[in-house]
Amino acid sequence: MKENGRPEPTRANYSSAKMLALLELMSVQEQPQRLQELAQASGLPPSTVHRFLSTLQSMGYAAQNEEDGRYFLTFKLCALADNIQRSQSLGQIALPYLQRLSERFGESANLCVESNLNLMYSEVVPGPQKTLVSQHYIGHIAPMHCTAAGKLLLMDYSEKRLARFIERKGLPRLTVHTLTDEGAFRQELQRIRRDGYALDNEECEIGVRCVAAPVYDYRGRVVAGLSVSGPSLRMTERHIRSCLPFLCETAQRLSARLGYPAAE
Asked: Could you list the residue range(s) of the whole structural domain that residue 155 is in?
């Protein structure tokens, strides 16, 4: 296993791995590159790079300037990405991750996204049937400022955007534990950025606690939160702490599934 977490390529797929590495390199180049420049940047022999480029050109994924012979990628790669997005919804992709979370915590696991400056539960896996059950339904709407997943989404806001959010929505008190002071709320978002997870300690509903980890997409944006919620009698600090590493790891795996480079 390499340091970046990717498996070592076998002899059979080594050539494919090198071509994909060349694609990744070309995708971040601001200007078209000459063959020798690509060979030097990739560490591959010019003959190998030329062979890869010829294949990419024949398939329509790369092209060459007629004036100076420099190579660049075409938008055909974007068409592949669009096809993937159309064929799979985020909820479908996240479902097996939610199922594992629900089994590990023994509580309801949720995929939450933003909808019109509110939090929406887009996928829910119920926990085992118990005497006390905390469960939301798909499509349920909740405030962002007092929910764990909502804080994760707000964490990704710019300062200007966050200020507009607070001006428009405010920080209304839902329970005695809701953070309604803007300064304290901003400090909470800073803590979440530092620690990589968020908590709802009976801030939205008395008797219910929730913990959530961020889900990033290929652009590095927080697009959702994976959350686990349950009655505070069972969702104790000790229980949350014991399961938190698994939650964060699951969110990282889902982020990698969405193409987030830092999760690889």
From this structure: 88-263
